[in-house]
Design a protein that fits this description.
By secondary structure, the chain is α+β, with helices and mostly antiparallel strands. Strands 1-4-5-6-7-2-3 form a 7-stranded mixed β-sheet. β6 and β7 form a beta hairpin. α1 packs across α3, α3 runs antiparallel to α6 and α5 crosses α8. The longest helix has 24 residues.
Amino acid sequence: MSEKDFLARRFEERRPHLKAVAYRMLGSLAEAEDAVQETWFKLSRSDVSEVGNLGGWLTTVTGRVCLDMLRSRATRHEEPLHDRDGRVVSLPDPVISAADRVDPEQEILLADSVGIALMVVLQTLAPAERLAFVLHDMFHVPFDDIADVIDRTPAATRQLASRARRRVQGQAPAPDGDTAACRRVVDAFLAAARGGDFDALVAVLDPDVVVRSDGGTLRPSALRRGAAEAASGAIMFARFAEAALPALVNGTPGVVAVADGRAMSVMAFTIRGGRVTGLDILTDPERLAQIDLSVLTD
């Protein structure tokens, strides 16, 4: 086996892990693929004969590629969409699975419970903060290695990760982990929405629930707070609920509304204490068209 073939095999073994790093950094499945491919190009052009930990080297290279992509977004003013109060309403790409299973590659992609709510918070971090938090807290990369990527001291890098960690813990606390119980909450929400039952909707929603709807460039986006205000969108919920198929959205119970063989929306639920604390609805037709609906029917 040639050296190039050996490296290619080692790289393919790490590809799912590298895509997981890139997805957390970028929030885009297509861009994550691009970042992983760029990492391969860098590997194929590099002399790694003296690299003792190729997996760690690939992880930090992927992080550097993603950092450059995030900074390029900022240069092009491609920031997440915000409402009038400055809150993010742009959602990351959802990872859709059948309601009863996640395939092995998705398990790697979604390790550490990377729900939509967490991904939204990650989007609010500055690029260097995001890199420090993702690489250290999610993938256990030493601060010394991260510092080289962002051109900071290890101490400054540690501070960036700490600041990011506080924001994540404050805005995206861990959701309930009982999948069956969460599915029952989702089913109760859908039943109330289908029946237009305002009181039942309020009962299943946390008083401080946050509802984000992202329509991309072609449809309206919105952000609502509070159970009463959220429940007032029951007509919109009902339209999606009638066509809803159960699914796992980033590993947690959610639904995909389907009509005429096309996805109309993806609804991702964050549930804590048996109530919906966050509801993220993707209605962007351009991104919905990329969803493979066969995973819900196979």
